[in-house]
């Protein structure tokens, strides 16, 4: 298509539409087209929308301040969990109730007690979230330290027959003999079992690299591998994950869930 | 091995999107922990996007806060059939940032003509950024690679449109080229970008 041609076909209008760059008239024209659009045309709109949104990933910028999420937490806690405010007349009313009878006092006390319980619950919830965030932050800092290393080997592990959906990745900082393990789509192990990571060098006996446990299947389970004080083989390095009795075994005995070889 | 790797990345993206839909359900039911997960995953990208539009740190932080507060308050308006959680958040962030640039106060600060680039600055950052999650880093590398393969003129039009929120006729006026040329470059750029991202996603 030359630059001199008009641009009122579906594809051209669609690109301008997803970027919200059409004139008002063109936008109406395109939305009219959408009413009778084919499946292919609707798919194009979806794909161009996805491509547009991916552009945000190309940006780089300074970091926002570290405590921004704390502000967000306090902002979202304001409205739905606002504690009831007792106005001055409320106290006078309470005094009146006191005068009226013991029953009124008991009722009022119960109301105050409820408010106190509610506030305590909010504080406990906030404390739990902050503790979990701090733990997660510490964990992430440890993981980032591994990612920042100069000599890092990536080993991708694919799911085997016992659980083909599973996959994993080992990011091995060979210089500092530490590693990061990502596990995804593995079923949570039974209470008496752990997953165990193995390093297999040059088809020799597997070397245990630690046991790992979690309660819920997820795609972003990251673990720091503490027991990988080994140098990589120059010939071949493989990693595998098996399901073993709690605490792990000296050699693999259970089903193998993941296996991958270093490129 | 390359095909395995690409399947792996594509699989991860789909599973990640499913997982985020579950997170949104938790957020809808009032679980703040899942908002923190969403924040951990996306705050840097959204902040980068907002910062590219308005270019001031403090205002960008305020806007990022607004995005997540709104995501919490309007979580029930998220409709999975209309797109991913990432798309929901990034669209909200972009709309808010562009609204700011259109405000009277912003224009009075003479920031309307701030840097117009064509992703060149962003394309220089091909080294892995340890602050990006691995999956997001892989997606970012692909987008940067795809953008680097567009013509400079096409990138420029996409950049202005996406980060400045200008219409095709406003872009034509701003960089003094005919409207038809803007439309041509926008179409070419977006279609190529779509094709390249679709290719890498299998």
Structure notes:
The complex is a heterodimer of chains A (263) and B (202). Chain A has 263 residues and is an alpha+beta fold. Chain A folds into two domains: 3-112, no CATH class; 151-261, Immunoglobulin-like (Sandwich), CATH 2.60.40. Chain A has helices spanning 10-18, 24-35, 39-54, 68-78, 88-100, 102-147, and strands at 152-159, 167-173, 178-184, 193-201, 207-212, 221-225, 237-245, 256-261. In chain A, strands 5-4-7-8-1-2-3-6 form an eight-stranded antiparallel sheet, with helices on one face. Chain A is flat. Chain B has one domain (2-197): Rna Polymerase Sigma Factor, Chain: A, CATH 1.10.1740. Chain B contains ten helices and no strands. Residues 1-12, 110-114 and 124-132 of chain B have low confidence and may be disordered. Chains A and B meet through helix 1, helix 3, helix 4, helix 6 and strand 2 of A and helix 1, helix 2, helix 3, helix 4 and helix 6 of B.
- The level of helicity of chain B is over 70%
**Dominant shape of chain B:** globular
In the CATH scheme, the class of the largest domain in chain A would be: Mainly Beta
Structural class assignment of chain A: alpha+beta
What's the number of extended β-strand segments of chain B? 0
The quaternary state of the protein chains shown equals: heterodimer
Number of strands of chain A: 8
How big a fraction of the residues of chain B is strand? Answer: under 5%
CATH topology of chain B: Rna Polymerase Sigma Factor, Chain: A
Topology of chain A as a string of helices (H) and strands (E): HHHHHHEEEEEEEE
Strand content of chain A is: 15-25%
Low-confidence stretches of chain B: 1-12, 110-114, 124-132
CATH topology of the largest domain in chain A, by name, is: Immunoglobulin-like
Name of the level-1 CATH class of chain B: Mainly Alpha
Q: What is the string of SSEs of chain B from the N terminus onward?
A: HHHHHHHHHH
CATH homologous superfamily (4th level) name of chain B: RNA polymerase sigma factor, region 2, helix turn helix motif
The biggest beta sheet of chain B is recorded as:
none
Helix/strand-derived category of chain B reads mainly alpha
Cα(first) to Cα(last) distance of chain A is 44 Å
